[in-house]
Amino acid sequence: MAIHGVILCSWGATSSALAKKVTDEAKKQGLDVTVDAGGTGEFKKKAEEYDVALLEPQVRHLKKEVETIAEKYNIPVDIVDMQAFALMDAKKILNQIIELAKKSGKEA
């Protein structure tokens, strides 16, 4: 089963490069995982399209707001691992997405 995740920041700018790196890493590992980037406002309109949502550390204060929307669609929400974010560690973030998906019964 495919996993469709999203990495959220305030406007979608910093998350774009990270989402691309994670998607590329998934392809390299032969996993059916796609990661989009977006702003938290955009997430409200497109939440049902995703299996998991990660927030970048700088928007952690919006977690409750995002969780409220995500709950309606059974989407687990977490904060991107701080160290992985600082290092742009696509492998670690990919693993985080897969673990989150497993919690909600969705697997790659």
Automatic annotation (TrEMBL):
Q: Which Pfam families does the record associate with it?
A: PTS_IIB
List the molecular function annotations (GO) for this entry. Answer: kinase activity; protein-N(PI)-phosphohistidine-sugar phosphotransferase activity
* Phosphocysteine modified-residue sites: C9
- Domain PTS EIIB type-3, first and last residues per copy: 2-107
SUPFAM superfamilies reported for this sequence: PTS system IIB component-like
- tRNA processing as a keyword of this entry, yes or no, is no
For this entry, the protein name equals Phosphotransferase system cellobiose-specific component IIB
Looking at the keywords, is Transport present? yes
- Enumerate the Gene Ontology biological process terms: phosphoenolpyruvate-dependent sugar phosphotransferase system
Keyword terms of this UniProt record = Kinase, Phosphoprotein, Phosphotransferase system, Sugar transport, Transferase, Transport
